[in-house]
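G.,

No rush on this.
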Amino acid sequence: MSDRRSSHFDDQGNARMVNVSAKPVTIREATASGAVVMNGSTAEMIRSGVASKGDVLGVARIAAIQATKVTSQLIPLCHAIPIESATIHFDWLPEQSSGSATLRCSVRVATSAKTGVEMEAMTAAAVACLTVYDMIKSVDRAVTIGPIKLIEKSGGKSGHFQRPPGR
């Protein structure tokens, strides 16, 4: 087992915000994804644009972008950083034999800062998925959300990370 400690705790075990003042500004990018599993007829409603609340994916895209900007207000020890780019992409995975459909939301966030944007990307993916649920809950309450996961990150001292296939 590793002896590594989380940098969010001091020597006495108290929570703290990590001091990044001496770190260099570098280009930081992160990609995260989440999935929304729903009934096939609900997916068709979204695809055809006839949801009673309007453009489901358009609203979810704006919600994800907004989420990147307020992540530090939601995650207590997360630094407030400038978001310089947020790209949200939705794609439909092949339909399941059960008749369910899966919508994947991928979010790529970039900045030039002293700390990374992983939390912003994951928060945005989660908020996009939650927004889809909010837009369709009146017709499909059995929706499942998840997993929310970091796919890739680059920049900073820890360098590049890419999620291994199948994990």
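When you get to it, here's the other one too:
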Amino acid sequence: MKVRVGIAGVGNSASTFIQGLRHYGSRKTTEGLWHPRVGGLSVRDIEVVAAFDIDSRKVGLDLSEAIFAKPNVGRKYLEVPRMGVEVQPGLSRGDIPPHLSSEKLNLSTTERVSKELARSGVTILLNLISSGTPRSSLDYANAAAEAGCSFVNCTPNILVSRPAIAKKFSEAKLCIAGDDLMSQFGGTIFHKGLLSLMVKRGITISKSYQLDVGGGSETFNTIDEEIKVAKRKLKTSSVAQEVPYQFETVAGTTDYVDYMGNERTSYFWFDGSTFLNSRVGVDIYLRSSDGANAGNVLLDVIRALSTARESRVYGAVEEVCAYGFKSPPRRVNFEEAYASFKSKFLR
């Protein structure tokens, strides 16, 4: 049985995700695919059947065209044939992302979105809208619950950790996962990995920082001071989980460079000490692509959440949340999170 996916927010991550579905779903290759099967499901078991956006430049277009429409700047990896999925007007309750502040918007209501989700037979809704849109994210979650579909919150807007929301999905026999998608090999997991390695090798860590510079609308939105502070708090809390004692650390986006497109450069600095208080320092940078970094994790989360619901596990699925997100309801280090995910979904 197909996992029928709806997408809220047809941005760069959605574009790369849909291209990935086309690439791995229509070919026999698994090169670049992290987990060919999750919960017994392959990429071919996933299909996108509904999409929503508030940008009038995308609404009304077939999804195959909308993923390459402005202001998207993600790489075009391959041609995507017409999908027969028309982008519908999306939700916004006044929390307009900065990159759309001067654009014409095409808005819908929670009731209409819920009806479209039900009509399209969506079983999982991906929330890929911009950072700094907590009320709109909540509206999409409510629309999903009313339509009878599970919900994945990829934004840093805190939803899954709110007991009332998790309870609502659990009582409806639906699943929910989030918050704030963690890239396959982006700044957060790289930062966590190096901290974990230093701890295991007996280094006493005193300080670390991660500074991100990138292009694309998501980075543009994140340099808004209020959004920047909120996202930095989430990322900093996530990386600190890898160290079993207090130390000074900061992680977050620092600037937007338009010509970088969907690319990102993350700068890292670590300071620690070892035998006879000898200093250990690391100064390094990582280059990556935001959209591609999300692809494998989205595929894994979708298939795992579908499997969980089929197994009658409802509400916030802890193994999925800890594995795929920076701010899960229960925080654990990544090695423990991956081991739990593997045990349940990769057997």
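The chain has two domains: 3-182+292-345, 187-289. The domain at 3-182+292-345 is CATH 3.40.50.720 (Rossmann fold).

Enjoy the weekend,
O.
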